[in-house]
Automatic annotation (TrEMBL):
This is Receptor like protein 9. GO terms for cellular component: plasma membrane. The lineage of its organism: Eukaryota, Viridiplantae, Streptophyta, Embryophyta, Tracheophyta. Keywords: Leucine-rich repeat, Receptor, Repeat, Signal. It comes from Theobroma cacao. PANTHER family: LEUCINE-RICH REPEAT-CONTAINING N-TERMINAL PLANT-TYPE DOMAIN-CONTAINING PROTEIN (PTHR48065:SF75), OS10G0469600 PROTEIN (PTHR48065). GO terms for molecular function: signaling receptor activity. Residues 1-22 form the signal peptide.
Length: 209
């Protein structure tokens, strides 16, 4: 058996071969597991898996962007749109807790937007720490308009690839100890608007917006 065939067999057995025109099996399964938590007003209506249908290619789904060559998911736009927020104004969703482990399949992810979802934190032992060393290409993380408290900062300190972190309009309060963020060596933009922060230390190289 040639080397190329060995590689093919190993990748296939690990469930990592792209389906058809570029939809990785483990990532499609991961997206379908995420759908119930972010499908406001049927926003993810085309996230369906029908055998033999072109619509089953997850790279063609709403709010999903894949790499043109590898077919891996590189961006997830799961924010709640303004129209969804307006429709929910009379029946606001109660705060809820995220299982961050659901994002483990997306190892090539560069940008993740979870804005405006009333997320109050993560389930016990299922926080963003679970993604340390896994999502090591993540550059942009948008968590604005949720209900995260100060503990969110310590759960993100190992994402050294981050270039921008959006935490505006959450429940960050009092004192922010920025020493926790020193490991974010590539961070260029940190947004903390709309929080009840009294003071925080300065740290070089970070643009506060």
């Amino acid at each position: 058996m040639g080397a190329a065939m060995v590689v093919f067999v190993l990748v296939f057995l690990l469930g990592g071969w792209p389906l058809g025109e570029g939809c990785w099996e483990q990532e499609k399964i991961g997206l379908l597991q995420l759908k119930p938590f972010f499908n406001y007003h049927n926003a993810l209506h085309n996230w369906v898996d029908v055998e033999g249908k072109e619509s089953s290619h997850c790279c063609r789904w709403e709010r999903v962007e894949c790499d043109a060559i590898s077919g891996r998911v590189i961006r997830l736009y799961l924010w709640k749109e303004y129209s969804d927020v307006a429709q929910d104004s009379e029946n606001l969703r109660q705060p809820w807790y995220l299982n961050a482990s659901l994002f483990l399949p997306f190892e090539e992810l560069k940008s993740l937007d979870l804005s405006e979802h009333q997320i109050a934190g993560c389930l016990d032992n299922e926080g963003f720490e679970k993604l340390w060393g896994k999502l090591d290409k993540l550059e942009h993380l948008f968590l604005s308009d949720n209900q995260f408290n100060n503990s969110i900062l310590s759960s993100l300190i190992e994402f050294s690839s981050l270039k921008s972190l959006e935490l505006s309009f959450n429940n960050l309060t009092k004192f922010i100890y920025t020493d926790e963020l020193n490991k974010l060596i590539n961070l260029e933009e940190l947004s903390l608007w709309g929080n009840d922060i009294e003071s925080f230390g300065s740290f070089g190289g970070i643009l506060q917006t």
